[in-house]
Amino acid sequence: MSIFEDVLLNARSAVDAVGKKAGKVIDVSKLKLAAADLKSEITHKYQILGRVVFEESATNKDYSKNKAELIGKIEELRSELDSVNELIAKASNKKKCASCGTYNPKNSQFCSKCGEKLVSDEEERVLTDDMIDFTEDNFEDDELL
Q1: What does pTM read for this prediction?
Q2: 117 forms bridges with which residues in the sheet?
Q3: Among 92, 108, 131, which residue terminates a domain?
Q4: Count: domains in the chain
């Protein structure tokens, strides 16, 4: 193999690596835009809910059905936002604090917001692997004696 071929091969692998990294950045950017859209929609639903509550109070009419629908939609949107935030955290190499929900760098040992010790991925796998299922289906009556 000539020096030119080596250089060409190294350049191709570098371009592939940069392309993958750029693709990851674009994916994270798209996720962040989706999160911003969801936050905006949630804020809009909260504003509508506020107006409905005000109108209900001012007119003494019952808008319970409307409030329930809006609350359901807000909960749905918040769930979607949580999912998108989880995807952003994974793509950004971050982990979520089990105590307060703040996202921290993957190598952090303690939460930057609440100070709680963060569980590493390896510790989490060990914890979930060691869990015992105590449902009735997994035990015979004579095993309990």
Answers
A1: 0.60
A2: 110
A3: 92
A4: 2
Measured CA to CA, the distance from residue 28 to residue 103 in angstroms comes to 15
**Half-sphere exposure (CA, 13 Å, Cβ side) for 69?**
6
Q: Is the separation of the CB atoms in 131 and 124 below 8 Å?
A: no
Q: What is the pLDDT of residues 72-86, one digit of tens each?
A: 999 999 999 999 988
Which segments of the chain are extended strands (E)? Answer: 94-96, 103-105
Percent of the chain past pLDDT 70, that is, above it, reads 65
Q: Give the tokens for residue 71.
A: 């609350």
Nearest to 77 by CA among 120, 115, 52, 48: 48
35 with 75, same domain: the answer is: yes
Cα–Cα distance list, 83 to 3, 32, 100 (Å) = 49, 12, 16
Q: Which residues pair with 110 in a beta bridge?
A: 117
Residue type, 117: K
Q: What one-character DSSP code corresponds to residue 95?
A: E
Residues contacting 117, CB < 8 A, separation 6+: 109, 110, 111
Cα angle, residue 110 at apex, residues 133 and 97 outer, rounded to 5°: 50
Distances in whole angstroms, Cα of residue 133 to Cα of each of 85, 106, 122, 137, 138 = 30, 29, 21, 9, 7
Nearest to 93 by CA among 17, 24, 39, 19: 24
